[in-house]
Design brief:
This protein has 349 residues and is of the alpha/beta class. The protein has a single domain, classed as P-loop containing nucleotide triphosphate hydrolases (Rossmann fold, 3-Layer(aba) Sandwich), CATH 3.40.50.300. The chain is built from 17 helices and five strands. Strands 2-3-1-4-5 form a five-stranded parallel sheet, sandwiched between helices. α6 runs parallel beside α10 and α10 runs parallel beside α17. The protein is globular, with a radius of gyration of 23 Å. It starts with a helix and ends in a 9-residue tail after the last helix.
Length: 349
């Protein structure tokens, strides 16, 4: 007994020092239609998810969408869009054995992995909705989690657990999105910057004018190339995957349409979610919310020397910040996607 205890202590110490080794994962089966109906007897609320590339307006959309008295949405559970995924809870071979072993009479010969995942996520979502006073019949609850790290794979993971859910995908002009993401790294995630990126950040603090007038780039050549490629791939791959897997349960909108036609854009989105937008006082709530910009206040608090030089959440900021090199690289890599989403009519920009 003493030797076993000592061995466990050594194992725990090794994990703390070196980290846990990766465990082989199995392919968890998708939830069945019958299992969805079973889970809904306990967790009856309809579900939706908001995906989008980083800095594409997912947070603004969440703030607006939950103004409706029958819609609740909270931030970034990342069930399907960032490691560790929800599926990892049951994906080890040991968990598969436990779920399916013949002595486990609760499973009635079935692998209950997907049911457990669904119940866990439903509990998190519906508990929060009830605490927000939006758990009554007819209410709908969702999560917003940017999917730029996994693109269409996030859709596939969602469908395995929520084939009945609605998915909303918000798109922003990729040039503005990558500029905003770059400044987010300058303000909040400087540890991710390359040494050259760190120098650019400091140069911007010391003298922002050349950067704000397109004379110097906030990007290295590798950074702008990678940012353009990731944006275009995420937009295209997410849309293609969602259209193929869930069809009419998939809805797209543009961040710029929220800015230009806020009420009409939100009205159509609430209709897609199955709730009545003609609710007394809702229009005024939307107008008031659009006057707020909590993200700008947060970044000002985190790094005032950078945030003071930025126009938060505005349309077309890239026009002032892109150098000619940035334009050409982005055009070459993502120009077609910009045209597809009506941000440009051709490649002459």
């Amino acid at each position: 007994m003493r030797n076993q205890f000592i061995q466990r202590l050594r194992t725990a110490a090794r994990i703390l020092i070196k980290g846990q080794k990766d465990t082989p994962l199995r392919d968890v089966p998708p939830i069945t239609a019958e299992e969805v109906e079973d889970v809904k007897t306990f967790f009856p609320m309809d579900k939706f998810f908001i995906f989008g590339h980083a800095r594409s307006g997912t947070t603004l959309l969440t703030r607006l969408i939950r103004l409706h008295p029958k819609v609740h949405c909270n931030y970034q559970a990342h069930f399907f869009t960032r490691k560790p995924f929800l599926e990892d809870l049951v994906a080890t071979e040991e968990m598969g054995w436990w779920f399916t072993h013949h002595s486990n009479r609760w499973n009635r010969g079935e692998d209950l992995s997907a049911v457990v995942l669904r119940a866990a996520a439903d509990m998190i979502l519906e508990r929060d909705a009830h605490q927000a006073g939006k758990g009554a019949p007819g209410c709908i609850v969702g999560d917003k989690s940017p999917n730029n790290l996994v693109s269409g794979e996030g859709v596939r993971r969602m469908v395995k657990v929520y084939p009945d859910a609605r998915l909303v995908f918000i798109v922003r002009d990729g040039r503005d999105a990558v500029v905003s993401h770059r400044f987010q790294a300058f303000v909040e995630e400087r540890h991710y910057l390359s040494p050259e990126g760190v120098k650019i950040r400091q140069d911007f603090i010391d003298d922002p004018e050349p950067f704000l007038t397109g004379q110097r780039s906030i990007f290295t050549e590798d950074a702008i190339s990678q940012a353009a490629e990731e944006w275009a791939f995420n937009v295209n791959n997410t849309v293609q995957t969602a259209q193929a897997l869930i069809g009419d349960q998939f809805y797209t909108l543009r961040y710029e349409d929220i800015l230009a036609q806020t009420w009409e854009t939100m009205r159509q989105l609430w209709q897609f979610l199955g709730v009545d937008p003609e609710t007394e006082g809702l229009h005024a709530l939307v107008d008031n919310e659009m006057q707020r910009n909590p993200d700008a206040a947060w970044q000002k608090q985190k790094s005032n020397e950078i945030a003071d030089s930025l126009k938060k959440g505005k349309k077309g900021t890239w026009r002032e910040l892109f150098t000619e090199r940035d334009r050409q690289i982005f055009k070459q890599i993502a120009g077609k996607t910009l045209v597809d989403w009506r941000y440009e009519t051709d490649h002459e920009w």
